[in-house]
Write a structure and sequence with these properties.
Length: 253
């Protein structure tokens, strides 16, 4: 598990505010600002839950339009954070959760757990992909583990892809299983933040064995398996991987 310095919540809120200001209608922007102020002032969680559930209807589900300057700012504020595939409602939901007072870690986590428990699929995706922006990162391990175990592909992707949290917080065995699962469900390993850094010989052998099984069953090998396995290979594994890749290519020629 790799721990990193956490992004200050105020930095995330500032960036989200600036991006949303460009796309939200004036009345929606006022609603979001007022709701966040109420939540931040400790005005109870009811306003948060209502706003969170209605964000899609109020803000719309268009793509969040980000340029290279915005993506650079996101990376500078939180290493590995790339919200280029986020939608407006996801950004709004994230902003609402970030407004929640967090000085009392237990109370904050209780409210976050309640949001997860009540969330539908699109709300779960927003929550999981926002995990790296939340305070109290050391309390999020159960959520990360739950996300990568999910049998709902959009939820799994929200944790595993374009999200630094899995690469930072999962132990080696859990990380290796997450990479293998990504191949099983046809999620692009190349979008797993930290895939190169966390490559290891155990994972390489798992992927070699998986490729061998697929070839023996005359089934196609996921194309990104080779790139996922190669950085962690030792010399003997690299030879075997190359042999298997050649065999897989010949079978499909």
């Amino acid at each position: 598990m790799i721990k990193t310095a956490h992004m200050p919540v105020t930095d995330a809120m500032t960036l989200l505010d600036s991006w949303l200001q460009r796309q939200l209608k004036a009345e929606t922007s006022v609603w979001l600002c007022d709701t966040c102020a109420s939540v931040a002032a400790g005005g109870g969680t009811r306003a948060l839950f209502i706003a969170f559930s209605t964000a899609g209807r109020r803000a719309g589900r268009d793509d969040l339009r980000l340029g290279e300057v915005d993506r650079t700012a996101a990376q500078a504020a939180r290493s590995g954070w790339d919200p280029v595939r986020w939608s407006i409602d996801q950004a709004v939901r994230t902003r609402l959760v970030l407004a929640l007072p967090s000085s009392d870690a237990k109370a904050w986590l209780t409210t976050l757990d309640q949001l997860f428990a009540a969330a539908g699929l699109e709300e779960l995706v927003a929550l999981y992909q926002a995990l790296p922006l939340f305070p109290h990162q050391d309390l999020l391990a159960p959520r990360i583990a739950e996300g990568v175990r999910s049998n709902m592909k959009p939820v799994f992707n929200a944790v595993a892809l374009d999200n630094p949290i899995a690469g930072e917080r999962l132990d080696r065995d859990a990380w290796n299983q997450t990479v293998l699962k990504a191949l099983f469900v046809a999620s692009p390993v190349a979008r797993m933040v930290g895939a190169q850094r966390r490559a290891n010989t155990t994972l390489a052998q798992m992927l070699i064995d998986y490729a061998r099984e697929r070839i023996a069953a005359k089934r196609p090998v996921p194309g990104d398996l080779w790139d996922a396995a190669r950085p962690g290979c030792d010399t003997a594994q690299r030879v075997e991987l190359d042999r298997l890749q050649h065999s897989a290519a010949a079978a499909t020629a």
